[in-house]
Design goal:
alpha+beta, 2 domains, 4-stranded mixed beta sheet, 7 helices, globular
Length: 199
């Protein structure tokens, strides 16, 4: 709609004022359009800390398909850790990675410290995919990366809410949000496998 209005305005200026003014408007419009496209975010702008407190730069994952998932240690869906690890082991050599974000937003089902979470993941599920420090995935304390994942104005795909633990966000090779997968959908679901394989 905005493009139509700008086009009509350009024609009106051309008719009233001439070619020079219309050309000026076209330049201004092009600059505004470029600025808007630059505002659109992707996953590569984010730097976070992992469970060990070390820096993790999403820019290091350029060219990979990424699954971002909010996790919890005391949830009915916690056994999905097993499927996440299986998925990671199967496709990690095919430009695919999983990044876990522990969160305590749902019935306080992730009460542990970063150290306790790391120990739990290793001892119970042998997790080797990158796990980040505990964050908030909703509300006033929502981490910026989840604002990107849940706001269409930032991700360019759609608005969403993190409904529960183990909601999955699929990011394409260019760092753009591609799909949102419900918490109860297993990581090994055919829709996810097909996406990883590019089917």
């Amino acid at each position: 709609m905005k493009k139509i209005l700008i086009f009509v305005l350009a024609i009106s200026i051309y008719a009233c004022c001439g070619k020079k003014e219309a050309k000026t408007l076209a330049v201004v419009t092009e600059v505004a359009s470029q600025e808007k496209s630059q505002e659109m975010e992707n996953i590569y702008q984010f730097k976070v800390k992992n469970l060990a407190g070390e820096d993790f730069d999403f820019a290091s994952l350029k060219g990979k398909k990424i699954m971002i998932v909010n996790t919890a240690s005391k949830c009915g869906l916690t056994p999905q850790y097993k499927d996440l690890q299986k998925l990671y082991e199967t496709y990690k050599d095919d430009n695919f990675v999983i990044v876990g974000f522990p969160a305590n937003n749902f019935l306080k089902q992730e009460p542990g410290t970063n150290e306790e979470i790391a120990e739990f993941c290793q001892l119970n599920y042998g997790v080797t995919f990158p796990m980040m420090e505990k964050i908030s995935v909703k509300g006033k304390e929502m981490h910026p990366i989840y604002k990107f994942l849940t706001e269409k104005a930032k991700n360019g795909l759609e608005d969403s809410k993190v409904k529960w633990n183990f909601q999955k966000y699929l990011i394409d090779e260019n760092g753009n949000l591609a799909k949102i997968i419900a918490p109860k959908t297993l990581p090994t679901d055919a829709s996810i496998i097909d996406w990883i394989k590019g089917l």
